[in-house]
Amino acid sequence: MLATVLKPGTRARSIAAGALSLLVAAIFVQFVLPGTPGGGRGTPLAILFYGLVVGCYVAVIALGLVLVYRSLRIINFAQAAMGAAGGRLFFEFVEFTRVPFVVALFLGIAGGALIGIGFDLVFGRRFFNAPRIQLTVVTIAALPFFAFAVSGYVPSLPFFPRASNRTVLELAGGVISRPFLPFPGLEFQVGGFTNKYGFPELFNIELLVFAVIAVVCFLRYTRSGVAIRALAENSERASLLGIPVGNLSTMVWGIAGALSAVSVIGVGSLSAPFAATASGAAIPVLLAPITAAVIARFQSIPTAIFASLFIAMVSQAVNYSFPSDAGLITVGYFVVVLATLLSQRRRGARSEEGAGTGWAAVREQRSIPKELARITSVRTTRWALIAVAGAFLLLYPIIVPTRFQFLGSTILIQAIVGVSLVVLTGWAGQISLAQFGFAAIGAVVGGALTATVGIPFWFAVPIAAAITGVIAAIVGLPALRLKGLFLGVVTLAFAITVEATLFDKRYFGWLLPSRIDRPTLFFLNFEQDRPMYYLSLFCLVLSIVVVVNLRRSRFGRLLIAMRENEANVQSFGVSAVRLKLTAFAVSGALAGFAGAVFVHQQRGLSRDSFVSQRSLDVFVFTVLGGVGSAGGALLGALYDNLLRYFLPSNDFLRTVLSSIQNGGSTLIVLYIAPAGLIALFVALRDAWLRIIAQRRQIVVPSLFADYDATALERRLIPLADADGNSGLAALGPGARFRLGSELHGSGSSGAAALRSRTEERLAIGAAVKSLGDFDADVPEDVVGATLAAMGENK
């Protein structure tokens, strides 16, 4: 009955759903929440008003997320960060110059737009046709670096005070913004609550109103806006119709940058610029708007705005009633995201299907061709490289001091987390931004089993891995209905939730051990760093062996096939549900395994080791290394940890590569090797194998797949000039050779042998002349006689 009156997708149904949500929220915040002691049950209007103010900048970020996804089919995980430079420019003008407020606001928004345009021109167009996973990595690592790097240079502009004339607080952007804004004396109260509000709160509401009006009018009443809407429906068709897709993409990124600058200005005006322009604030600020965008399915701008205001007001009400339990709000965001994605329809529009699968086109690096694998030089070189790497890993703890032994075992364990992404992202094509969240669960459970319950390490670690695998499968439930980028939203929300709640003693104090001892095995004691290093190396090798064998098994082959074409796999009676959940479970179990080993290696738990930013880092660097294979994951882990632990101590390398924290090295790698570092090594290996194939005249189709067939036929010859003193050239002019044949009696003599040799010579000469590419001194009558003789024999 309800479906008949309020049809799905209609405006009436949306209005009814919004009204019902408001009613439920009103009952919840006024009658369910306890309020504060002495203040009465419910939430004061002043708190709800401040929630509305917070919801305004949340809505601006959500507006940018929806706009970018609808137009470019990419979730911009840097939407809260890319406006940092524009926001910093605005606050510098307001605080240190006499530039009018309106002019400073315009310059700040324009600065954010320029960051978006510059990003698209430098990176967006380069990766426009690349798999979506590469552009996702760009928005996670490169775009925030680009924005924060420019933001760091803003105070150095000549019309601002020099650093020597500023206080430490001014340099850090920690000065409260309220006194520098217009109408500093404006104050008012809402209801009977004592909180006072002023211009910054009204300013945030105005920013949202003007941003929505500007974006809606642009999309509806301008030719470029209509073209962007056409681009959102089908980019390929828009390109065929003559619409400049590249220019529109640049325009979309410019608008997204401007909206991000508006949100940064709104956040900073409520407190201080540092609250919005610091790199560490980007991920937590993004959680609420990305939840609102998920509720709107990244499609409906009105729904995204309404959801932003709604969840912000409810969050402030919960925070007012439970000020010490802020972590519960992140749990609520995760539950909302998970429930919303599970309730959405399985299939969407054609463009949405492409966005969900096109990004997952991960190129798996091929192995050495079978034609060359048994050649002595190839086998010798391969085993020599393996021996050198193995010798280095075995001798490393012997030749380095103790602190580097501890660091080496840390790197080996963290490499297991990167390997766990190969199963889920490289094979199954499902994005995960929560691998260190899974590792945190394994660490907590494994540490509790050994330190509190008393279970030996050798049993506790597998149990912790199994429990983590089950939790990972639950987190991956939306993968049964949706694909690709939306899984990144769920896993990111999960990572932030784990960081906010798992290490809080009020919730899990019974599970968090205070001290964890390293394991022992018979007469082996791993208390020292050197034995612990070898145990970590063994765990990494064990993980690689498991992953390699999984890839060769039926399970691995089915995962690859499902990633490429899920419908075909299901047509053969294979359960895609079981495959996806198994992939999540295996990946989570490997990450939990790494966490359980890591917590014993560290001798204790630390929240800082499992922050959500580390999950983003491991995803970025695993993709940079090559997420399609275990070797690529190891390269990514090596690259990550070199930048994190070694290169920052070198001033020159820190300046050139910009270290891990700001992502400058990521930009370099993305430009040089978009397919990952493993692709560079494979390209060098294939070049060497081509030389071997040419010298040995071995046809290897997989190595020459990109070559023209005619050119390849002429190229498969020895690279050096023919030697006149060896081979056929050494026979001299007029000399002939005899082809031995067991079939026709190679041992004949006399006239029969002479006749056989003559016929063979004539046949070979005729065949050579028929090729046309070689000169053969064979008379035409001889060729004709030979062919006639062959016909008579036939």
Helix and strand composition category: mainly alpha
Q: Give the termini separation.
A: 85 Å
In angstroms, what is the radius of gyration?
33 Å
Strand-residue fraction?
under 5%
Identify low-pLDDT runs.
347-361, 649-662, 742-748, 790-794
Mind summarizing the main beta sheet?
A: 2 strands, antiparallel
Q: What is the share of helical residues?
A: 55-70%
Number of helical stretches of at least 4 residues = 36
How are the strands ordered across the major sheet?
Answer: 1-2
| Mean pLDDT over the full residue set | 78
Number of β-strand runs: 2
Q: What's the overall geometry?
A: globular
Describe the secondary-structure layout.
Layout: H1 2-5, H2 11-32, H3 45-72, H4 84-96, H5 101-124, H6 132-153, H7 168-172, H8 199-221, H9 223-233, H10 235-240, H11 245-270, H12 274-277, H13 282-295, H14 301-321, H15 327-343, H16 350-358, H17 370-373, H18 376-399, H19 402-427, H20 435-453, H21 457-475, H22 485-501, H23 505-508, E1 520-521, E2 524-525, H24 529-552, H25 554-564, H26 566-571, H27 576-602, H28 612-625, H29 630-646, H30 651-657, H31 659-662, H32 664-672, H33 677-695, H34 709-715, H35 751-771, H36 780-793
